[in-house]
Amino acid sequence: MNKNRLEAFSDGVLAIIITIMVLELKVPHGSSLQALTPLIPVFMSYVLSFIFVGIYWNNHHHMMQLAKKVNGKVLWANLHLLFWLSLFPFATAWMGENHYETWPVVMYGCVMFMAAMAYFILESALKKLHGPDSEFANTFGTTIKDTVSCLAYVVAIGGSFITPWVGIACYVFIAIIWFIPERRVEKKIA
User: Fold this and answer.
1) Closest listed residue to residue 172, CA positions, set 156, 161, 157
2) Spatial distance between the Cα atoms of 46 and 179, rounded to a whole number of angstroms
3) Tell me: the pLDDT tens digits for 21-34?
4) Are 105 and 168 within 8 A, CB to CB?
5) What is the pTM of this model?
């Protein structure tokens, strides 16, 4: 089965996700700079989520460049990832609109964690399809960044019950470590 439709569909869904997130930035009533002040939490949530969507798009793009084929299991795994990514606008808006209160920050972390697990499932399905000795399987695998990210999500979710800023700090940390794509994948693609 050809992978091009999966890539095109995924790119379209990610573009729609970004569009929905930006639509949550409501135009303030008033023309002074002070009218923008209430939008700061919403805007900062948007920036964080935009970076995460960009990270997923970048990594998904690289993964699909190395994939030679897809099958039904891969298509469902990809839809599973897109499901969790499609919840980003809701989690982003809820967290920003409620000025980083505990439950919205916890829910944001849960959505982010599930998206990370869905990405892992997609990667695993592609590795299985391509075989254990394939270039794909030799390029992808669990890294320190993967392990640290999962632990950081757990700390973020649990720590948010103490103070939501623990969660926010962990989410920013995860975005920072994933901002630069995996060098091993970049080398293979080049």
Assistant:
1) 156
2) 16
3) 999 888 998 899 99
4) yes
5) 0.93
